[in-house]
Specification:
With 105 residues, the protein is an all-alpha fold. The mean pLDDT is 89. The protein is elongated. The chain is 80% helix and 0% strand.
């Protein structure tokens, strides 16, 4: 397994996390395409942001073999990144909607 493959799997897991959030909490859904886009960016952003703690793709590969513990943490963080992206964008959307309603009155 290469670092590129681990990165692609991480992005896929982020997409799964974002779409799972939309399925289990429909009020937070932006549709399949919207959740997919948020999953790509949310999963990748969280891995890039806090992956330096030791579970980025280079650390997962270590000395040429896959460290399954680090891979599991990487996948969990990617999943949570997708979920958090959907949640945060929904909060932003609701905040903007609330501000627009407040300004109309």
């Amino acid at each position: 397994m290469t670092t590129t493959l681990i990165s692609l799997i991480s992005i896929l897991i982020g997409i799964i996390g974002a779409n799972a959030m939309g399925v289990f909490y429909p009020k937070y859904s932006f549709g399949f395409i919207g959740n997919t886009i948020l999953g790509v960016f949310g999963g990748a952003f969280l891995i890039k942001s806090i992956g330096r703690l030791g579970f980025d793709p280079k650390s997962v590969m270590g000395a040429g073999t896959v460290d399954l513990t680090m891979l599991s943490v990487n996948m969990l963080v990617s999943f949570l990144g997708g979920v958090m992206a959907v949640f945060i964008v929904c909060l932003m959307k609701n905040f903007i909607k609330h501000q627009e309603e407040k300004n109309r009155n």
